[in-house]
Specification:
172 residues; five-stranded parallel beta sheet; alpha/beta; Rossmann fold
Amino acid sequence: MRIFLVGYMGCGKTTLGKSLSDQLGYNYADLDTNFEERYKISVADFFSRYGEPLFRQIEQKLLHGYLAYDDLVISTGGGTACYFDNMEFMLQHGITVYLLMNPEQLAARLSVSGRKRPLLQLKQGEELVNHISGHLAQREVFYRKSHIIYDGTNPSAGDLAEMIRNHALLIP
């Protein structure tokens, strides 16, 4: 079984994904980290040099590459679910979990994050919250297709692991 974590940047996919993989006894993969390790360039630098469309094509190929593995928790990028047929692919080949957070919570996390986020450059305060609100509204159409919608405010890997196990029992 594969578990795909989806949600807006800063919602905790990486942090929760690592803990969740431990709880389930699964391996762990982070799509953005895999991209950076394979291509020896940060996602932010790739965006600025080559643009988002090429990044999204490569990202999709990396995502499809996870079919070769079972018992894997995968933290996707914030936009992964929103391009091509990626969300449908994840729904067909694993259990998807949307880590739900509101724009104010996301802005608070992102404003203290040390990571460069190409889609949020130079935004702060109310401008950041407004940008996230609009962007999240567009992306939630995809995120909400997930098998499980989980509150990312104070996540518990143990609770989420139990929800996933229960959901897996319902799959024919």
